[in-house]
Amino acid sequence: MATSKQGSDGGEPLQRRAKLGGGRRRERELRIRVCDQEYEEFHEAATRAGLACSAFVVKTVRTAIREQRPVDGALVALHAELRRASRQVNAVGVNLNQLVRHANTYNEIPESVEWLAAYCFQVVRRAEAVIVELGRRLP
Q: Cα–Cα distance between 37 and 91 in angstroms, integer?
């Protein structure tokens, strides 16, 4: 659970990092040296984020570490497949719109509606399968 303390300007309370599970405190201390300008930048950014300086630095560094993880080639392939499926669904939507316009204009349903509906279901089922697989691979 996060705790808070009054901001240095007397304003909104700042959020501290949550303790480790079971109420344990973090044991390790990391000391760094910064110049006055860096300190001011860190402090201002932490204040804008509503965090204590140490919580802000830890959160920022952990985010940077996660972003540096190598890209999983399988995730890239799944992303590309979802993009293809999205384009296919869009194309099907355009075709369905044209068929509905034709049906309304001529009061008849074209034969291609059945084929297009079946194709649409195929694309959606494949997209759902890719989404499930992508969900399994995400952290």
A: 54
Instruction: Give the whole-angstrom CA distance, residue 13 versus residue 5.
Output: 5
Q: What is the pLDDT of residues 92-127, one digit of tens each?
A: 888 888 888 888 999 988 888 888 888 888 888 888
Q: Which of 83, 99, 97, 91 is nearest to 120 (CA)?
A: 91
8 Å CB contact between 13 and 5:
yes
Calculate ∠ Cα 41-47-53, nearest 5°.
Answer: 70
Distance CA 10, CA 37 (A): 22
48-63 per-position pLDDT tens digit: 999 988 888 988 888 8
Please state, rounded to an integer, the average pLDDT across all residues of the chain: 79
> What's this model's pTM, rounded to 2 decimal places?
0.41
Q: What is the DSSP string of 1-28?
A: ---EEE-TTSSSEEEPPPPPGGGPPP--
**Of 120, 116, 138, which is closest to residue 128 (Cα–Cα)?**
120
| Nearby residues of 102 by Cβ (< 8 Å), 6 or more positions away | 108, 110
Report the C-alpha gap between 5 and 10 in whole angstroms: 10
